[in-house]
Design brief:
Elements (H helix, E strand, L loop, with lengths): L7 E6 L5 E7 L16 E9 L2 E9 L5
Antiparallel strand pairs: 1-2, 1-3, 3-4
Length: about 70
């Protein structure tokens, strides 16, 4: 039995599929904050990969207003 958790890779892509962020996250981490301040308002595809598993979601970043 393997007790060493697999590292998790986070990838964030913009609507055109361009990779805008890639980070390795500790496997034990339950909350991870991502700084996207250099990114434009829009829709982003986020993917988490660990071993042969993966999970995807979309995130909408809206402008902060005036």
């Amino acid at each position: 039995m393997n007790h060493n958790p697999l590292p998790v890779m986070l990838q964030v892509r913009d609507i055109s599929g361009r990779l805008v962020l890639q980070e390795s996250i500790p496997a034990w981490s339950q909350v991870h904050k991502v700084a996207m301040e250099a990114s434009a308002t829009g829709l982003y595809q986020c993917e988490l990969r660990w071993g042969i598993r993966s999970a995807q979601t979309r995130v909408l970043i809206e402008g902060g207003g005036p």
